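Preliminary data (for renewal application), magnesium ion complex.
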Amino acid sequence: MDDKSKAIVNDPSVLIRRAVVLLVDDQAMVAEAIRRMLVDEADIEFHYCSDPRAAIQTAISLHATIILQDLVMPEIDGMMLVRFYRANPASRDIPVIVLSSKDDPSIKSEAFTNGANDYLVKLPDQVELIARIRAHSRSYMAQAERDAAYQALRDLQRQLENSNAQLEESNRELHRLSSLDGLTGIANRRQFDKMLDQEWQRALRNCTELSLIMIDIDYFKLFNDTYGHQAGDDCLKTVALTLDRIVHRPSDVVARYGGEEFALVLPETDTQGAQRVAEKMRDTVTRLNIRHEASKVSDKISLSIGVATMNPRGSESPDMLLAAADDALYRAKHAGRNRIEIAKPDAVLSNIVSQFRS
Ligand SMILES: [Mg+2]
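Predicted structure:
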């Protein structure tokens, strides 16, 4: 062995991990000769399999980094075995050096066609064999490391995608919950303000009418005082769900405006349309027959309702519609409750004017 060859063979930096060699050969004498060639190499681990039927399984379980494959064996042809290594996903990428007794170009060509990575004539030169084992093992392990790193990266990416999806779902749920009233489960004041603003802008753009209904449960404080807060909460829930069921368009959202007050924005709805909805609400809640002996207008739960309609213009604001509906509700209460009052167009206007004066 010359100095240069010794330097290559003995260079420990050539391999990071140990090369795991599996020799598949039916002749024990060949195995012994190869074993002796490799015995002094600390970075090369040698294994031998004499049974070609066990070759693939042995290579996989040993985590072989290189296979030395005999061509002529009883039972299974070496060329066929090379094809089998290539067909199995677990052994597909393990480098194979064919060990042949013949230095025949056509056999070499066939070996490479079948998937061999290299070809050596038996018995190979020790220095050359070690150098080839190291070279093939090194590139195989480097590729395996790149594959593992890539796979780890993909896994990490997938985990990130999953966490992102969960985060988005939580955000949606949070947003949903933050728009709902905790007691009744219908839209809350926040959501109502948002919708009023949205629908106002839409009506402004499309030059359509926008109606607003304000609803108040009559003498609700007396109901609470008489039947207790639990009964009061149950009553609020029942009324809320009943009102919510009356409207059907996605844009018609009944909200709990506060306490025992509810509000509803009706896009593209004129005064008559809004009045019909209000009448249905009052009628339906009356027919719920929730006893209210302390009420001064009925023996059951009843509603006072204010309705206002506007054709939004750029100089106005949604607060004006809100104030007009509130004013109509105030008049309904003042006139004896359990009734509906409609804000007159001039009432809406005067309300706006008084708002600006105050
Ligand atoms: Mg043989």
